[in-house]
Design goal:
It is built from three helices and seven strands. With about 170 residues, the chain is an alpha+beta fold. The radius of gyration is 28 Å and the shape is elongated. The chain has one domain. The termini are far apart.
Amino acid sequence: MTARRTLATVLGAAALAAASALTTAPAPAQAAGPEHYVVTEDFTIAEHPYYSGVCGFPVELHVWGSFSVVEWTDEEGDVTKEIRNFRFRSTSTANGVAVNGITMGPEIWTYAEDGTSTGQIMGVVNRRVPGAGVVTLFAGYELKYVDGDLEVLLSGPAGQREDAALICSAFTS
């Protein structure tokens, strides 16, 4: 074997050994990819505190729908970020009148190691009386900071606000 061929064989074997070592070495620890799941809700509040208080008569609220959640975790399995796309329908009733509603939008939550979290909530709400048309239509944005039981509104509500007087008047028409 010539010196040149011997050198090529040795270098080839060394390269193969190095490549083999790289492919068999364990990969560094990484967080798992995001997890996706759906949370459904269906509940009734016999006398909704806000609307009943503003309207001056009992307003019942029935809500149903779901959150489509995508959740990211760190290496220890702690949730670090969550995107919750929500779509809910509702029926509010008072004085024999029903007001139907739909609300949808995303919530984006970021969770810190110290247990605090920051959430951005964006959404659109439409409320209508069957046969009479839209009562209210509005959109908004809020930025919240949560630390245990303390919840602080950092920004917002921005955008349009629902006019509760319109809802109350729909129940008395």
